[in-house]
Design goal:
With 164 residues, the protein is of the alpha/beta class. The chain has one domain: 3-Layer(aba) Sandwich (Dihydrofolate Reductase, subunit A), CATH 3.40.430.10. It contains four helices and twelve strands. The strands form two sheets. Strands 1, 4, 5, 6, 7, 8, 10, 11 and 12 form a nine-stranded mixed β-sheet that branches. Strands 3-2-9 form a three-stranded antiparallel β-sheet, with no helix packed on it. The relative contact order is 0.26.
Length: 164
Amino acid sequence: MNLIAAVDSNWAIGHQNKLLVRIPEDQKFFRQTTTGKVVVMGRKTLESFPNKKPLKNRVNIVLTGNRAYRAEGTVIVHDLDELHAELAKYNSEDIYVIGGESIYRQLVDECDVAHITKIDYAYDADAYFPNLDKKEEWVITEDSEEQTYFDLEYYFLKYERKRS
């Protein structure tokens, strides 16, 4: 399974259920990487999308404890057991965990690859991604040249879990 996120220099991912910044090249990378794949998210992440609609051309799986929750065009699961039963239908390499904070924290240890857009700036934030630089089992296996968007510098990084 894969993780995909844009993080700031403190591993922050959001503020008040919104992305910290929208970088067109990062959004393009996200779209190209996840189109035709399975995306796993929490309810608040789905509700942060335009019109609260699922992402097009993907299987959208939403993990929520709210058993009454419904969202057109999604597969709703209510706990990790239901999620794992649903995910068993797909190739693990085609599954991307896309947030938010609680979903990343619950699933990070089950993932093998993390696609991280690392933004060299610290934002005011209230949601964070697990800091992979502090986890010995994660190593950077690919990194891009420095990218810029106006005055922001950022990098596309690929982390992989070390096999012991």
